[in-house]
Every structure is written in C-alpha cells, then in structure tokens.
Design goal:
42% of the residues lie in helices and 12% in strands. Helix 1 (15-24) runs antiparallel to helix 2 (30-46), helix 17 (432-442) packs antiparallel against helix 18 and helix 22 (564-584) runs parallel beside helix 23. The N and C termini lie far apart (69 Å). The model has no long low-confidence stretch (mean pLDDT 95). The protein is of the alpha/beta class. It folds into two domains: 15-59 and 118-379, TIM Barrel, CATH 3.20.20; 396-747, Alpha-Beta Barrel (TIM Barrel). The strands form seven sheets. It has a seven-stranded parallel β-sheet. It has a five-stranded parallel β-sheet with strand order 18-20-21-22-23. A three-stranded mixed β-sheet has the order 13-16-19.
Length: 748
C-alpha cells in the first residue's frame, strides 16, 4: 500500500475559502462553517480510500502551525482573554487592539504559516479536541487514519521565541506539553499511527537541537503507537542517520528534491525500518514518468528490502491544485501533460501496483497511456521557440550604466519627492464589481469598450483618492490584474492557465499559479496602456508596476525538462523589454516586485550560491535597461533578510520596500548594520489584518524606523499590496498613514 503526506484542504471549488469569508463577514454561523469543513474532510478522504491510510489533521481552518499552537496552548498573552474561533482567527488575522501573529513562508514554498510565539512564561494547556474529532470522523466513515502532526523540532525551530528566553528552556517546556498532547492522542486507539513531519531536518545540522533527536524520538516511539518521521523539500542526511538509531517504525524521504537521500539507503536497510519513499511530486503538476520512476524504485530495491518500501508523495499535496477534471478550456495536448492532487494519487496507486506486482493486464493500458503522454510532451513543437533560444545565446546588459550614488542624485532632482515620501505597494481593493467586470469580459458577455471604460473609471477613482489624501507617489491600482503573476503570464508566450487550479497561499487566500510549459517571450507591451493612462490623469508621479522574473518563476508551475535558471532568463528578457517601453513613454518610477525572491532559496546552505547567482543575474537582466533617471523599486514579502542582505544590495534597486509591520523594526536593523545605502520602504502597517491602524500607531512605527535609518533614506508605505482589503479599511488606513507622516515631517 502507498500513502500521501497530506491533501489540499480548500476544496475543488474553494469551498473552504467561501465558507471562511462568509463566516468572517457574518453571513455564516459557526456551525455552518464547521459543517462545511466536515463535508470537505469526508470528500477528501474518499479519494484516499485505496491508500494505506487517510490523512487526518492535515485539514485546517487556517494553518497547521496555528492549529498545533492552539492544541499545545501556546497562546500569546494578548489573546488569552479570548476563546474558541475568536481566539483562533484572532491570532491569524488580528483582533480589536491585538496585533496578529507574524506570518512567513513555509520553507521555500508559496504557502504562509502563522508563526507561533513562545515564551518561558507560557502556561501550556493541552487541547486535542480538533485532532480527536477528525480522527473519529474518519473511523466512523470506515477509513484507517494516520494523524499528521508537525514534529516537535520543526514547530520549535519555526516559532518566534520572545522575552529573550533561551532555546533550551523553551524546548524543554514545549517538549513536556507536546508529550502531554501525544498521551491524549494515545487514548484514541491501540493501533494509532502518527506521521511526524520534520521538514526542518532538510536544512541540515542545527546545533540547537540535533543532539536531542534520538532521545525525543525514542521517547515518542516508547509510547506504543506506530511512529513515522517524514522530512521533505530537500535531503535530510544528518537527521536520517540519527533516526536510524531510534526505535521509530519508519522514515519518509523526498527522492525528488533530495536525490542525495539515496546515500542513506544502506544505513536505513540495516536499521530494519520501513522506507516511505517520496517518489510522486507534491510540488509540481507534470504527469509523472512512471517508467523512469519504476526503474528508480527497482534500483532502490537492490539496496533495500522491497517489502519494506512504501511509496509516497514527496511532500503534502497542499502545494498542488485539486483536480484537472473541471479543466475544459485548456489545450487538450497540454492538459494531458498535467497531474493535480487527485491524479497524483492515481499515479501513486498505479506505480505501486507496477512495483509490487509487475505491469500486468489490469494496469497495462494505463501504463502505456502514461508512457505515450510523456513521449508526446518531449517532442511537441509547442514547447520549443527557436527565436527565444537564440536570444538567450546573445550577450546582453546585466548592470546599470551609472552607480547608485550618482543615480539617486539625478533621480532626486528629476522626481523631487519630499523627505519620507509616501506611497503604496501597488494594488488597491479588488471589489466584487471589478472581479465581475473582468469575468464578464473573459466570458464574452461584454465588449472591450465596456470593459475598458470600467477599468478607466476605477483608475480615475484611485488616482483621485490618492491625490485627495496627499500621497506623494501614486499607483494606478491594478484593476486589470487578477493576480500579479497570472496577469503577466497571460501575455507571455509559453504560459498556459487553468480554470480551477487553485492553491492555498494562507487562510482563505488562494492563488492560481500559471503553468510554464514552453519557451517564454513577450509578444507585445503588457502594462504600457494602463500605466500611461493613469499618468495622464495627474501631475504627480505614477509608478509603473511589474512583477519580477524570479517571482514569476517561483510563483508558477515551471516546466521540468530544462533548468529553472534558463526559464527565468527567458522571463527576464521579456520584463526588460517592458521596462524600456515604460520609461520611453514617460514613466519615471518602475517597480519590479520580487515578492518571492527569498522563497526560491534552497534549504541547504551548500546549494544557495548557485541559486543566488542566477536569480540575481535575472533580476539585473530585467532592470539594467533602465536609464539613470528611471528609478527602479522592488518589493519583498515575509523575509528574514540577515542571510541575504548582500544579495539585496547586489540587486541594485534604487528603492526596496519590505514587510516589517508585525516585527517592529527588527527586520530593518540588518540594513543599518551592513551600511545599506539604497532607499528603503519598511511597511508601517499590516495589510493582512482588517484592523485600521490609528495615526498614533503609525507615528510610533515611523519613529521605530527612524531609530534605525535616517529620514533621507526612508519611504513610508503599507506592508504589501491592498488588493485583499476592502475600501472601508483602506481609505482610513491610508489617510492615517499620510497624516502620521506629515506630523513626523513637521517635527523633523
């Protein structure tokens, strides 16, 4: 039998998103929300019925790290007066005067987790009710469940330790609470199976806890349930060596993104443990080449007992869309190359049957079909574009012509913005009316004249509002864009889009990643029309808004038949063409967002340099076309910058905006420590919360920033784009931002 590490939870048609947003808006009761969640779990388990287990506790109303924090009673002090869902969603989204917990990326994916806050003063109170409820639901439906649980080491390592408490104290206290939770779960079943997820092991040796791994997992195994420890996203050789010495039953390894895990096979075989072999890709959407995978498994079985190998996905299928069953508009040939979560389970079952029983008559037709699909994709003329390939071979610019210290003087003269200039990151609220306008146009229900009039009206309103409140540098609001990557992908050759390929980013936020299937090029300008229209409405500067090549790559499903670096270079050349068109049309500031630059980093230090080199080269290939007087901005989300600050400097963007509102001025301090000379726009309020910040809060935040960097170097802006917020939240928030900045300026 085979297993999956986990399954997507938002539903085939984003049922969870709709239920959550209905509940938050007051249109659904708590019981209705919980009923929707129960129905989704039952449906998702039905697709796993032929696997060894169905996955329990991979479902969440918001995030699994948040779930575990609540189960352990790791509740920040500011939320302890609240209970149940008010407490739960308050930690994620903010509540009244209580600022939400930070969010950051789950390793190098586009999924965001809520960062637990841990302190020596925490009073842990175990609540296993969620896990127990879901386990009993699965049992009642006749399934054999395994409980998915984030491992102790991953949970503590990814948490934020506050109050200056040392790691060992936190770990010791939390370990006791974690074990109490396990003791509660043990009461569920005498044959309980728990899958402990420890992706932190893929980052290599961590001196804080590596010496504790054997002791902890021996103690867990001694509790008597079947213990499986899985790690994924890259190789986890060091931890695997230790786990082989413990009494756990099985170890799960990722053989797609961690090929070096093969070197652990001999030791694993000697340990007598079951190998859960991550062989079906949980992060990408291409049909598996089952013939090659079978050959790989046969090689493994030469070193490892075949009866001790259980096939698995490389990681949770959370990172893939639900199913391609509802994809009716996509090119049929390209669609045949794709495999989403439900199809991956079918691939897993087919591969497991071939591995254990051979290619018999019962699977021969499906096996041959998979073989034909892979061969067709390899030779399809839709993939290759000679002009694009030739352009890659032609040397081009990768450096701005004038150094920053000279450029910025020229830009200050040209742009004439004040001290502490105010701006936004780019997008404004995507209202239901705006979404309906775009959908009606896509469906052919309205003509281009009506559509363009609607977009123009929105832009006019955006510009008028920004001028009214006194923002210094304006944006057009991006009403024509459904998504910051999808919009560009729709206009680039080599991309294709799903109708329903939604993937959870955080909470109710879902994205529909573009699919890069072939060589990429830019046939025509992508943003010029709307940028120049917006600029025609005002004498103030309007930023041109682009998504950077690395982010487009990292937020897409990328073809796996050539190097990612080559795909990124193709995209970069298209963005360079766009920048040149914009500046030649009079757009003086151009923002090239690299929100996902950090998340593409390999987890292992030894692999970082290669990624940095080509990612940096691609960004600079895009922006080196800019004239000295053209100011290049970039934006980065949810990043710890300590380890990449040198690379940020090397990007050579004139201004970088970053998300800092949930962390005070801590993230900014590294910029001062290294003597960062370019201009910086640290976010002064959190746009992921519906809270409206007061002027006093923003003044306090600006003062914190001024403790780190001089006023001449700072821009004032929100944390991120405003598309997910409502106008009734955005308008007062931005008014407060402008007024707070003016008060600081007056005293400067």
């Amino acid at each position: 039998m085979s297993i999956i590490i986990g399954f997507p939870r938002v539903g085939e048609h984003r049922e969870l998103k709709k239920a959550l947003e209905g509940f938050w808006a007051g249109n659904l009761t708590q019981s209705q929300l919980l009923r929707s969640a129960k129905e989704l779990r039952a449906k998702h388990w039905s697709y796993q019925k032929n696997l060894e287990y169905v996955s329990v506790n991979d479902f969440s109303l918001y995030d699994n790290m948040l779930d575990l924090a609540c189960a352990l009673g790791a509740i920040p002090r500011r939320f302890r007066a609240y209970k149940d869902l008010e407490l739960y969603f308050g930690m994620a989204r903010g509540l009244k005067e209580s600022v939400a917990c930070e969010m950051t990326k789950w390793f190098n994916t586009n999924y965001h987790y809520v960062v637990p806050e841990l302190s020596a003063h925490d009073d842990y109170k175990i609540d296993a009710s969620k896990i127990i409820l879901e386990y009993n639901e699965a049992k009642a439906l006749g399934y054999r469940p395994k409980i998915n649980l984030i491992g102790l080491f991953t949970f503590v390592a990814l948490s934020k330790i506050i109050d200056g408490t040392d790691f060992d104290t936190i770990f010791t206290n939390l370990k006791q609470a974690y074990f109490q939770l396990l003791d509660e779960l043990k009461k569920l079943d005498t044959t309980l199976t728990i899958q402990f997820e420890e992706p932190i092991f893929a980052k290599g040796t961590d001196e804080r806890f590596y010496s504790k791994i054997k002791e902890v997992y021996d103690q867990i195994a001694a509790k008597g349930f079947k213990t499986i420890v899985v790690s994924y996203f890259e190789q986890s050789l060091e931890a695997t060596d230790i786990l082989c010495q413990t009494n756990i039953e099985g170890i799960g390894l990722d053989f797609l993104y961690g090929e070096k895990n093969l070197s652990s096979l001999e030791l694993l075989a000697k340990s007598g443990k079951t190998l859960y072999a991550g062989i079906i890709d949980g992060r990408n959407i291409w049909v598996a080449n089952l013939e090659k995978k079978l050959q790989f498994l046969e090689q493994i079985s030469q070193k490892f007992p075949k009866d001790k190998i259980v096939l698995s996905t490389s990681c949770s299928l959370l990172h893939t869309p639900f199913s391609k069953d509802s994809e009716t508009n996509m090119d049929k040939e390209i669609l045949s190359w794709l495999s989403f979560a439900r199809e991956k389970i079918q691939e897993l079952e087919l591969l497991e049957s071939a591995f254990k029983n051979g290619i018999n008559e019962s699977i021969k037709q499906s096996w041959e079909q998979n073989k034909a699909i892979n061969q067709n994709r390899k030779i399809s003329p839709k993939i290759n574009d000679k002009a694009t390939q030739d352009r890659l071979l032609t040397p081009g610019k990768t450096q701005r012509e004038v150094a920053f210290k000279d450029r910025i003087k020229l830009q200050h003269q040209e742009l004439a913005y004040p001290i502490l200039p105010t701006t936004t990151i780019g997008s404004f609220p995507q209202t239901p009316q705006l979404r309906a306008l775009r959908q009606d146009f896509k469906k052919g229900q309205i003509n281009s004249d009506i559509y363009e009039k609607g977009i123009q009206d929105y832009i006019k309103d955006c510009i008028a509002f920004q001028e009214e409140i006194g923002l210094d540098v304006l944006v057009h609001g991006e009403p024509e864009r459904n998504d910051m990557v999808e919009y560009f992908g729709e206009q680039l050759k080599g991309f294709v889009f799903s109708q329903n390929g939604w993937v959870q980013s955080y909470g109710s936020r879902c994205v529909k990643p573009p699919i890069i299937f072939g060589d990429v090029s830019r046939p025509a300008p992508m943003t010029l029309k709307w940028a120049t229209y917006a600029q025609s409405l005002t004498k103030k500067i309007v930023k041109g808004m682009l998504t950077g090549p690395v982010t487009i790559l990292n937020w897409s499903f990328v073809r796996d038949d050539i190097q990612r670096s080559a795909v990124c270079k193709q995209i970069a050349l298209g963005i360079a063409d766009e920048i040149d068109d914009l500046q030649n049309a009079g757009i003086k500031i151009i923002q090239v967002d690299e929100a996902a630059f950090k998340e593409g980093y390999p987890l292992r230090k030894e692999n970082v340099k290669t990624y940095e080199e080509w990612a940096l080269l691609c960004f600079k290939t895009s922006t080196s076309v800019a004239k000295p007087s053209t100011q290049i901005h970039t934006h980065m989300c949810y990043s710890e910058f300590n380890d990449i600050i040198k690379t940020i400097e090397d990007l050579d963007a004139d201004v970088i905006s970053i998300e800092t509102a949930r962390s005070g001025n801590e993230l900014l301090k590294i910029f001062a420590q290294v003597g960062y000379s370019h201009e910086v726009g640290p976010g002064v309020y959190d746009i992921h919360s519906p809270r409206i910040p007061t002027q006093e809060e923003i003044i306090k935040q600006i003062k914190l920033l001024l403790e780190v960097l001089p006023k001449e170097q700072l821009w004032i802006n929100p944390d991120c784009g405003l598309k997910t917020r409502k106008w009734e939240e955005v308008k007062p928030s931005l008014k407060n931002l402008v007024q707070a900045t003016k008060q600081i300026r007056d005293k400067a």
